[in-house]
Design a protein that fits this description.
Layout (H helix, E strand, L loop, with lengths): L6 E4 L10 H10 L3 E5 L9 H9 L6 E5 L10 H7 L2 E6 L4 H8 L3 H11 L3 E5 L1 H4 L4 E5 L12 E4 L19 H10 L6
Length: about 190
């Protein structure tokens, strides 16, 4: 049985125009295969896929396709699953991590993504797409140096990695207090 594939967890605002070091690593991991860009986190996904199509151009990805569902019911149909057929990897874009888990959590689409990962496929995510990878997912809370109990919103993520909680845009938005608060409320996890 193959080992699960790699996870590439990106804090956000990855370079899409310069050296594209992180995106090059994503492309290297799918080895000229099919990469699914999951724009599920966004209420308004227009432009997301086109930006990633330009960003991955010339990096060696064989095929780039978009997975977007407007509502949970669309995850039950064959169209959403067909997008994932033959995928070497799935890349979750930014937006709202709760939208990812609520739209695809415990659906055939999530099961197929897990199958891709279990078979050695890459799962990558930036911003919301990074936060959703853990089992304990930080959904929201004000940035700042300290937190009061009750200020944080936490939900279940996709559990692709266990025992950690992932915050995004960490340095640029001053989220050390938010992350410390999340770890204090969940002392068995690594922040």
């Amino acid at each position: 049985m193959p080992e699960p594939g790699p996870l590439i967890i990106i804090g956000g605002h990855e370079d899409k125009e310069g050296k594209r070091l992180i995106l090059k690593e994503v492309a290297n991991r799918v080895r000229h295969g099919k990469l699914v860009i999951a724009t599920v986190a966004s209420q308004e996904p227009d432009g997301y896929f086109d930006a990633y199509r330009r960003a991955f151009k010339g990096l060696g990805v064989g095929e780039l396709v978009e997975l977007y569902v407007r509502n949970r019911a669309e995850t039950l149909g064959d169209d959403a699953l067909a997008v994932l057929d033959g995928a070497a990897g799935v890349f979750f874009t930014g937006g709202d991590q709760l939208r990812i888990s609520s739209q695809i959590g415990d659906t055939p689409v999530e099961r197929r993504i897990r199958e891709i990962h279990a078979a050695g496929g890459l799962i990558a995510g930036t911003s919301a797409g990074a936060s959703v990878m853990s089992d304990t997912m930080l959904v929201g809370g004000a940035s700042g140096e300290s937190h009061r109990i009750g200020d944080l919103h936490i939900a279940a993520g996709m559990s692709l990695i266990r025992g950690v909680i992932i915050d995004q845009h960490f340095a640029e938005r001053g989220r050390i207090g938010r992350l410390l608060g999340a770890v204090a409320q969940n002392p068995r996890v690594l922040g």
